[in-house]
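chain below, 88 aa
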Amino acid sequence: MSDINNIPEKYRPISMWGYFGYEILFSIPVVGFIFLVVYALGGTKNVNKRNFARSYFCYLLILIVIMAVLVATGLVGQVIDMFRGMYT
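prediction:
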């Protein structure tokens, strides 16, 4: 079994708690987005952190596009009206 300390810092894996912590960090509204952009553009030497930031950034872009399509088609308004009708 190889020792993680023998792996160069550039390729050292991230622990499960590390991924959890980075996801919480990236979820913070303004500061998290800044960290996300910095890490995604190469602000860290660790390849795994950079790739995780890039995947999270792609996830956010896809989510924004889906929400924009829903707002543009008016489906969000219809869902809100549907819930208003259920509780009145």
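Residues 68 and 74 are 10 Å apart (CA to CA). The chain has a mean pLDDT of 90.
thats it, cya
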